[in-house]
Amino acid sequence: MSMADLAMTLTYATSIGMMEVNPIARAVMALGSPAALCVWKIATAGFGLGVLYAFRTRFKAEIAAWVCFIAMTLLMCHWFNFSRDISACGEEYAALSEPENDNPHWVLMAAR
Q1: Is the pTM of this model over 0.85?
Q2: CB count, 10 Å around CB of 42?
Q3: pLDDT tens digits, residue range 46-82?
Q4: How confident is the model at residue 41, as a pLDDT?
Q5: C-alpha to C-alpha distance for 107 and 23, rounded to whole angstroms
Q6: C-alpha distances in angstroms, 93 versus 6, 36, 70, 71, 89?
Q7: Which of 60, 38, 61, 33 is nearest to 48 (CA)?
Q8: Residue 65 and residue 31: Cα distance in Å, rounded?
């Protein structure tokens, strides 16, 4: 699910742009490098999986794994709804992408 999130993020961030509310992800995306975003996403997901694996025999790790699963499932639902509804938001997206709008959450990366 994490890689699907990365694929969707790259799809929108390198094409029409997108709103990114996660300040850490936004800072990585501000570098303008899809490769840097991939490395960051894979590193954070790998770190999280490593921690869960290292503590897999503890009950708290199982709870944490379920919390992560629920969070990623909700994120997938968000992407599903976003992809379904984006076609109705053309004017809003055009306004958000204008340079004079200067929205701090707006991200548009060059495809490389």
Answers
A1: no
A2: 13
A3: 998 899 899 989 999 889 889 989 999 999 999 898 8
A4: 92
A5: 11
A6: 21, 25, 29, 26, 6
A7: 61
A8: 31
Both structure tokens of 7: 């694929």
If you search the block for the tokens 């707006």, which residue do you land on? 106
Under 8 Å CB-to-CB from 52, ≥6 apart: which residues? 61, 64, 65, 68
Cβ atoms 110, 33 nearer than 8 A: no
Task: With residue 85 as reference, give the H or E element that holds it.
Answer: helix 59-85
| Cα–Cα distance measured from residue 3 to residue 69, given in angstroms and rounded to the nearest whole number | 13
Site of tokens 């790998």:
46
